[in-house]
Amino acid sequence: MNTESSNTLEALFDQMTPEQKLCFKQAVVQQTIYYVTQHLPAENKDDGERNFIWAAQKWIDEPTSENAAFANNMVTLDLIDGGARNRDYPSYFLTPADAAGANDAIAATSYALEAAGNRTEIARQWQIAAAEAILQVQALPELDHA
């Protein structure tokens, strides 16, 4: 992560209440889903890639420690003996569940940036704008501009 942007994001994060930090993590997990969804194969060719989006969405809908652990366990099990390990699909598709299972929102940002691929700088700027919006109790910026 760009050091200046990283410092800015961490400074914004440090100003957030616990509720705002949760909201920011939910936004970042949604950002990760946004990018990964753009690379999904057709549903009839899906080998399990969508499972990790489902786990991440489950955490967004109910952001409990149990759902975060579930997302982490899905990733771990897949890497041990699943589609990513068996090369049915790249580990890239695990990033939404990785983000949902991350310890905090700042940790989750790295998964969103990984998912963004060559659009990392745009994704990083969206994260800063989202953090600012949350702090100012405003609507999040649109992801389709990310």
Structural overview:
The chain is mainly α and 146 residues long. The protein has one domain (3-39, 51-145). It has seven helices and no strands. The protein has helices at residues 3-15, 18-37, 50-61, 65-81, 95-101, 105-116, 120-135. Helix 2 (18-37) packs parallel to helix 6 (105-116) and helix 3 (50-61) packs antiparallel against helix 4. The longest helix is centred in the first third of the chain and has 20 residues, at 18-37. The radius of gyration is 15 Å and the shape is globular.
Write the layout of secondary structure elements.
Elements: H1 3-15, H2 18-37, H3 50-61, H4 65-81, H5 95-101, H6 105-116, H7 120-135
Helix pairs in contact: 1-7, 2-3, 2-5, 2-6, 2-7, 3-4, 3-5, 4-5, 5-6, 6-7
Summary of the model, kept short:
With 146 residues, this protein is mostly helical. It is built from 7 helices and no strands. The mean pLDDT is 92.
Helix content: 55-70%
Overall form:
globular
Q: Write down the Rg.
A: 15 Å
First-residue to last-residue Cα separation: 16 Å
The total domain count is 1
How many helices? The count is 7
Average per-residue pLDDT, rounded, comes to: 92
